[in-house]
């Protein structure tokens, strides 16, 4: 699991809380979202940071239009 990467959108249009925890690495693609799920998660009564740590060394943020290899290098999943 420590060598696996999961890609998620930044607004929770996937099973965000379930995918970010654990041993695997996560790449949060900023700018990737669904407007319907944005409305759903806007009604959440708790901040997402209560569920997962966005400051974890296993989580990196990458613009959706960027080269994902840069994110995988930060996670030490591929070498330069």
Can you walk me through this structure?
The structure is a single chain. This protein has 80 residues and is of the alpha/beta class. It has three helices and three strands, in the order βαβαβα. The protein has helices at residues 16-20, 35-42, 68-74; strands spanning 5-9, 25-30, 59-63. It has a three-stranded parallel β-sheet. The protein starts with a strand and ends in a 6-residue tail after the last helix.
Write the layout of secondary structure elements.
Layout: E1 5-9, H1 16-20, E2 25-30, H2 35-42, E3 59-63, H3 68-74
Parallel strand pairs: 1-2, 2-3
Protein name: Sucrose-phosphate synthase 1-like
InterPro entries: SPS (IPR044161)
Keywords: Glycosyltransferase, Transferase
Strand content: 15-25%
Q: Helix amount, in percent?
A: 25-40%
Radius of gyration, in Å, reads 13 Å
Put simply, the count of helices is: 3
Characterize the main sheet: 3 strands, parallel
In whole angstroms, the N-to-C terminal distance is 22 Å
List keywords for this structure.
single chain, 80 residues, alpha/beta, three-stranded parallel β-sheet, 3 helices, 3 strands, 25% helix
Briefly say what this structure is:
This protein has 80 residues and is α/β, with parallel strands linked by helices. The chain has helices at 16-20, 35-42, 68-74; strands at 5-9, 25-30, 59-63.
């Amino acid at each position: 699991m420590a060598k696996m990467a999961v890609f998620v959108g930044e607004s929770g249009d996937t099973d965000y809380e379930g995918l970010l925890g654990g041993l695997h690495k996560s790449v949060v693609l900023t700018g990737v979202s669904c407007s319907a799920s944005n409305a759903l998660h806007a009604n959440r009564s708790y901040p997402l940071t209560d569920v997962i740590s966005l400051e974890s060394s296993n989580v990196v943020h990458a613009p959706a239009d960027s080269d994902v290899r840069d994110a995988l290098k930060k996670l030490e999943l591929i070498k330069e």
